[in-house]
């Protein structure tokens, strides 16, 4: 546990990629395989759910620290992070422990969900007394399900590649899918030759970079394949050993949630993997994404919702064919074979080919792009002809050319602290727009500002707090921000009657006064034109 806490500190205290890779490489080269396997599990974002209720965790920490409840509450408001607050308030350790990470996880962390409260408390207090402040912080994060650190999966893979000599793309593939950390698994993923027993394993998704400069900088348009960019759930549909697997981009196995696509997979030839987008689709046309949300929010899919909101797979690419990994084949070959698969699959519209959009010039494509919102799409995907299907977000071969987002000017009305390194700053904001003479909460956002802007907004919030509601502050309505978002729809669950997708702060409108912010009437007009 000591080594893992030291790794966490090293990763948390630098923003330099090479320093992070060096810290990861040194860690993997020095710890036992069981520890390395669990470290990978946590570092790439897989973590247990909250194992102890917050109320009990606080109660036991207060008793161990021998402080009054009010002092813990004041400390929590000042620090802004539960795990860090507890680690700071607990007394100095009375013992020390050199037990490895895998022991703490397998013998002390995972059993918490099975133990009664008395044994939970005893185990937790014993751990606190044997750990220093940094170890406690990491331990508390694991217990609360809030563990995260500033390192991407690609950096973890690069460090593993440096230790093992195995190609990073191969390692990325081996880490996909459903697996449990163990010595055997760690040794298998680092083996020069690996006999992979996981029949369901998906491939790493290839992700596009956004176009930032002029589109004609990509060169001759005839070197590119253009497709409409759809707004659904990115997924891979896999057929192996006469079983069907549907994986989301977030590496969640979602086969049971989409029975239409499970049936579709049964029509595929053995050894097939297709990359595509799950869309609500009816009568040969896509439905608004809001209809998909009706399905996502249900635990049980009855006949009515399946009939009202059926789904289809919009096929983008072919990753496996006849049991062979074909990602290195040229785009044209994968495309032609995918077309053959779609035409041969008699599925009554459950698989739809993402058709190329052919134009003679970038100017023609630019003109066509103006129709994107009316077509219910987000813009274009541009894929270099002859390219392979790569791993992760790589520049050069795939680009996304999205339409401009919706935007409104709104007033900051509530704020609360962020998480992790931002736990001591107010970084999570609620914005309001005018409904007559009243500011109505409209959207929440926490991204888009620079560190300097965040510090200035934080100082304003502290000087201009009107009321406190736990960690939330009501502030004087003086700051105006331009909010950007991708989609907008009516919503009975929101006070404003409106819900937006992916809101973020586009810029701080220091040139505007609160009364210049937009109104609900203006925003409702956006829905009418959507």
Structure commentary:
- There is one protein chain.
- The chain is of the alpha+beta class and 530 residues long.
- The chain folds into 3 domains: 2-144, Orthogonal Bundle (DNA ligase i, domain 1), CATH 1.10.3260; 206-402, D-amino Acid Aminotransferase, Chain A, domain 1; 406-529, Nucleic acid-binding proteins (OB fold (Dihydrolipoamide Acetyltransferase, E2P)), CATH 2.40.50.140.
- Helix content is 37%, strand content 23%.
- The chain contains 20 helices and 22 strands.
- Strands 4, 5, 6, 7, 8, 9 and 10 form a 7-stranded mixed sheet that branches. Strands 14, 15, 16, 17, 18, 19 and 22 form a 7-stranded antiparallel sheet that branches. Strands 2-13-11-3 form a 4-stranded mixed sheet, with no helix packed on it.
- A hairpin with a 7-residue loop joins strand 20 and strand 21.
- Helix 1 (2-12) crosses helix 9 and helix 2 crosses helix 10 (153-164).
- The longest helix is centred in the N-terminal third of the chain and has 14 residues, at 17-30.
- It is globular, with a radius of gyration of 26 Å.
- It starts with a helix and ends with a helix.
Examine the coordinates and then state which fold CATH places here, giving the name of the CATH topology of the largest domain: D-amino Acid Aminotransferase, Chain A, domain 1
Unreliable runs, pLDDT <50, ≥5 residues?
none
The Cα radius of gyration reads 26 Å
Q: How much of the residues is beta strand, in percent?
A: 15-25%
Give the termini separation.
52 Å
Average per-residue pLDDT, rounded, comes to: 89
Largest sheet: 7 strands, mixed
For the record, what CATH class of the largest domain applies?
Alpha Beta
Number of helices: 20
Number of strands: 22
* Class inferred from helices and paired strands: alpha+beta
* The CATH superfamily title of the largest domain: DNA ligase/mRNA capping enzyme
* Known CATH architecture of the largest domain: 2-Layer Sandwich
Tally of separate domains: 3
Q: Quick one: overall form?
A: globular
Share in helix = 25-40%
